[in-house]
Design a protein that fits this description.
Layout: E1 2-7, E2 21-25, H1 29-36, H2 40-48, E3 51-58, E4 61-69, E5 72-75, E6 80-83, E7 88-96, H3 105-117, E8 121-126, H4 131-140, E9 143-150, E10 156-160, H5 164-174, E11 193-195, E12 208-210
Parallel strand pairs: 7-8
Antiparallel strand pairs: 1-8, 1-9, 2-3, 3-4, 4-7, 5-6, 9-10, 11-12
Helix pairs in contact: 1-2, 3-4
């Protein structure tokens, strides 16, 4: 998984406004549960844990959403749980409704959250095979700082890209080591597994074969 960030000193990319598109901090738990495929109780639990739900509307129609963690966050795929420092935010569980995809809503939602939260640093991850998600983050102005994956001993580490200082801070946030090698070629592949990413990284679907 790629870790990306936006800092208060970073510029936001210039995106043309979309007519009738607006982003609000949701106060409607019933609506949030419906579009997020959760129960109302699950939405309430997320709020109680310090998570803020944002919804993007086209006119009055909710079309895209995402959550902002302010106290603690988790990455279930990697079994990571970590606290969120003051003036930091972790963005998670974003989606655009299928009939509204391909219209550039995701990067505009991200930018709206950046502007509304006014945090010093925001962090977000995406799976490398989810190219639309990565492209949307880049269009919004987020910068990828490292690749998060399993090491050969099944622990988790972060390989930095071209911003080692930001990668170091990101690794500290997640509570994982910053390393230069020894990662599995795919974030889903651990220990006795060979991933097809090694043979065809561009079309990885994480099909695996046991040695």
């Amino acid at each position: 998984m790629a870790l990306a960030t936006w800092w208060a000193s970073d510029p936001l990319m210039d995106l043309a406004p979309l007519s009738n598109f607006q982003v609000c901090l949701s106060v409607n738990d019933v609506q949030m549960a419906a579009i997020n495929h959760l129960t109302v109780a699950e939405v309430e639990d997320r709020r109680q844990a310090g998570n803020l739900p944002y919804v993007g509307y086209m006119g009055e129609i909710p079309v895209t959403y995402g959550w902002v963690a302010t106290r603690e966050a988790s990455i279930g795929e990697l079994n990571l749980i970590f606290p969120i420092p003051v003036d930091n935010r972790y963005l998670w569980d974003f989606a655009t409704l299928p009939e509204w995809q391909g219209r550039g809503l995701y990067p505009r939602l991200l930018q709206a959250i950046v502007q509304m939260e006014q945090a010093e640093r925001l962090w977000i991850i995406h799976a490398p095979e989810n190219r639309p998600s990565g492209a949307g983050m880049q269009k919004a102005g987020f910068q990828a700082v490292g690749q998060l994956s399993f090491q050969n001993d099944s622990s988790i580490g972060l390989i930095p890209f071209d911003q080692p200082e930001r990668a170091r801070i990101g690794a500290a946030l997640l509570g994982v080591p910053l390393i230069e090698d020894g990662l599995s070629p795919c974030w889903r592949c651990v220990d006795q597994v060979v991933c097809t990413c090694q043979r065809d990284p561009e079309s990885c679907s994480c099909a695996v074969e046991i040695r």
